[in-house]
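Weekly puzzle thread! Below is a chain. First person to post its structure in token form gets bragging rights.
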Amino acid sequence: MSDVSDLFQSYVPEPPKEKKRILGPIPIRLIVPNVITLVSLWLGLTAIRFAFEDRLETAIWCIVLAAVLDGLDGRAARFFKGTSRFGIELDSLADAVNFGVAPALVLYHAGLRSIGSVGWLASLLFAGAVVLRLARFNVMADDPHRPEWQKNFFTGMPAPACAGTAMLPLYIAQMFNTTPQFDGVAAALLSAVYVVGIAFLAVSKIPVYSGKTLGKKVSRKMVAPILLGSALCFALIISFKITSLAVLSIIFLLTIPLSAMRYRTLERQHEAEKSVATDSQ
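Winning reply:
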């Protein structure tokens, strides 16, 4: 009987094993910078919408605000120690839309369309140049052999600056014309040539000062002038919105030759130091 009872014992199932979680929870500090990047992307897309609705000034400010957020998301990632490869790729994709596609479509609708395929070609060249510039930036950022002093310079015009300066014809049109667009074939042709020139600066190897070393340390004597200057710039931008953007664009373009000369000077110093070190060995 004992043998039979052993055959018909009650079955007690084993408790289910706890499944291991493949992906753990994501810290908030990793999400905050990506949220800022997504908001900037939405601003770039909204700029396209406002341009098609002939609300060009609003479209301009959407792109400007997207540029501001583009500067904040990287700083937020470093502040929260939330830098990730995902965030870097997301930022590049958003920049391609905000500073390549959106300004190209805004400019095309604002006046380049009046010269047909020539205006569309200028828009295509601009958008393509900005995307190529972003791809090159990502590759160069991973270069471990790049000298430390070169990190203070961009190779070519940075994407946000490309977007801001490319819309200079639109700023001028809104400053002096009764319509917000740059009307006329001559104005559109000049604008197309100018936009292609900005596209060339984007993909060129012209060094542009990045200003990354600014703001780390300020002498006590310069605190008051910097505060007053910042307040004055803010007041001018609020009071003379489009005019301020035009002036800033022109000033930035004028600083490019100065940046190139400074780069050449530092490059010669670096080469001289390398030759001295080689000779001493």
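Puzzle host: Confirmed. Bonus trivia for everyone else. The longest strand covers residues 153-155.
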